[in-house]
Design goal:
Elements lengths: L1 H24 L11 E6 L5 H16 L3 E6 L4 H13 L4 E4 L8 H9 L4 E4 L10 E5 L1 H16 L4 E7 L5 H19 L3 E8 L5 H15 L5 E4 L2 H13 L7 E2 L6 H9 L5 E3 L2 H16 L8 E4 L4 E7 L2 E3 L5 H5 L6 H5 L2
Parallel strand pairs: 1-2, 1-3, 3-4, 4-5, 5-12, 6-7, 6-8, 8-9
Antiparallel strand pairs: 10-13, 11-12
Helix pairs in contact: 2-10, 3-4, 5-6, 7-8
Length: about 350
């Protein structure tokens, strides 16, 4: 009997020790130095751009001596919250979230804080919560540059415009529109620009942008001069609709993200421009700050942004307009895309 009891006690102790080791390996905040673990909750990995974010962020974090646990929610708010709960259960040292819906992820921030885990909002702002840090490109500037490109292209001439916004659930889409409006509103008001159709592309889906473009053509006819599209994925859907109508290359189309397919379209002349957001800068900066949060080191920023509840410390990075004239000097020179891939000989 004593022998059996001894085995039971030994087994329980061994299980506890193994469990403690596994939890520390998964990022538990333990006494003494340990390799921190950063939880990375991503909205999606369906698009080329987000795959690059994951690879670059993870690589930089590892260089800094941290591990990364990645979850992708496939643009599902319920799934993303469950992903965050799983990362919290793994006792990560810091949490980085790319929210599908910035308002919905406020609950995720509260849950993380209850567990003593700081949260960095990456590229998209989480609203309505006591967020620790926001690292992103200057999204107002993105919208301003897109709109300014159109204004500069038409040089004071009247033009008919279709506007395709992003997903209403993405706070960035609202910021892009705000930046665009800063440039366009006076010209729309004085009649220099005529907005013939506008709509939001749910979930940033190219097929939704295609439907919006088709609706615009049905409503306004073929007399459309430009389409202000908020990202490259939806620009692809728009251009597909224009191709089917024989209008591709005749209508000025904007974009953002410098995806390879968009750069190829710019080289061919069916898309006019994109916004290059140097992902190496974003991913390195976010990984460095996430590592500091994980190690409970001091954070110093020079900007902040109102998320509806608090002024969130923010790091806002610069962006670049890319056209056919500077494809070589930007995305090719930076090694984002190969010359032959962009120009497809």
């Amino acid at each position: 009997m004593k022998y059996r009891l001894g085995l039971v006690v030994f087994s329980l102790v061994l299980s506890l020790l193994i469990g403690l080791t596994l939890r520390r390996g998964a990022g538990a905040a333990a006494a003494g130095p340990h390799r921190p673990v950063i939880g990375f909750s991503m909205d999606t990995l369906k698009e080329e751009r987000w795959q690059r974010d994951k690879e670059l962020f993870t690589a930089r974090a590892r260089e800094l001596g941290a591990d990364v646990l990645v979850q992708s929610a496939n643009s599902d708010d319920v799934r993303q919250l469950k992903d965050v709960e799983a990362l919290i259960s793994n006792r990560v040292d810091a949490l980085v979230i790319i929210p599908h819906d910035g308002a919905a992820m406020a609950k995720a921030v509260r849950l993380a804080h209850e567990a003593g885990i700081p949260v960095l909002s990456y590229d998209r702002l989480i609203t309505g919560c006591d967020l620790d840090l926001y690292v992103a490109f200057d999204n107002l500037r993105v919208g301003e540059l897109q709109a300014q490109y159109l204004v500069d292209t038409f040089r004071g001439r009247h033009f008919r415009l279709v506007r395709i916004y992003g997903a209403k659930t993405d706070h960035n889409a609202l910021m892009f529109k705000e930046g665009q409006d800063k440039v366009l509103a006076p010209l729309i008001a004085n009649g220099s620009i005529e907005v013939v159709h506008e709509d939001w592309a749910d979930d940033w889906r190219p097929e939704n942008a295609k439907k919006i473009t088709n609706a615009a053509i049905t409503k306004a006819g073929r007399n459309i001069d430009a389409v202000l599209v908020s990202n490259d994925g939806t620009a692809g859907g728009c251009i597909q609709a224009l191709l089917e109508e024989g209008l591709a290359g005749q209508v000025v189309v904007t974009g953002q993200d410098a995806d390879l397919s968009a750069c190829q379209r710019i080289a061919r002349g069916t898309q006019a421009m994109t916004i290059y957001k140097p992902l190496k800068n974003l991913t390195r900066t976010a990984a460095e700050f996430a590592n500091k949060l994980a190690r409970r080191q001091a954070i110093v920023t020079h900007d902040d942004i109102d998320n509806g509840q608090v002024k969130v410390p923010a790091v806002l990075l610069t962006v670049v307009t890319v056209t056919k004239d500077n494809l070589e000097a930007t995305v090719v020179a930076d090694g984002v895309h190969a010359h032959d891939a962009v120009f497809q000989r």
